[in-house]
Amino acid sequence: SKETREAIKKESVEGTMKGENWIKAAGWNGIVIGECSSKKQYEGKSLEEILKEQNRFDEPYEGFFDWLLEIEGNATMVIFVMDENDVRTVMSSPLSSIISDSWATAPSAGGKPHPRVYGTFPRVLGKYVREEKFLTLQDAIRKMTSLPAGKLGLQDRGIIKEGFWADIVVFDPDRIKDKATYSDPHQYPEGINYVIVNGQVVVENGRLTGARPGRVLRRC
């Protein structure tokens, strides 16, 4: 309704909206559509680009509401609100873990998900460890393995030790790097030779073996 639209717009503009106000935080150009299954033409475009293409950017909120109705509210988004200095500050803390904040996918999937889906850990090892030497290799690996495993209370995981579950990644520290980009995110990283999950090889010489030994940990 008109009243609902006005209420949402008012809360967004004034910053009184309960919860996350991404339009105020990132702006119309800082919100990019990741996946829109019903309207593929919008994937990879910012809200500003979409509204300008529709000649609706003069009244962006009204254009946005109509666009949401057009796609039936079915879309994912990538939001540009991070600051590199903040990332480094948090990363340098001995208490911080490195996570992807994402989900499992594959090149056969659709849309344009955030590049972190494919490249989080290789990016840290390639950019922040090898190239910039911001983190030591040992500290980076700790932040990816034993530290989060300990925080989550995962039993017999997180370190290489006799009797523990063998979850191991074998990579080349001189070659590892992420390849995923915002425009072409469905790309596996370089430099990962082997991946072992629960003692079984799932990646061999950089290729998937087809083995699926992973399992859900319901009680840690």
UniProtKB/TrEMBL annotation:
Signal peptide: none annotated. Coiled coil: none annotated. Residues 85-203 form the Amidohydrolase domain. Gene3D superfamilies: D-aminoacylase. Domain 3, Metal-dependent hydrolases, Urease, subunit C, domain 1. InterPro entries: Amidohydro_3, D-aminoacylase_insert_dom_sf, Metal-dep_hydrolase_composite, Metal_Hydrolase. GO terms for molecular function: hydrolase activity, acting on carbon-nitrogen (but not peptide) bonds, in linear amides. This is Amidohydrolase 3 domain-containing protein. It comes from marine sediment metagenome.
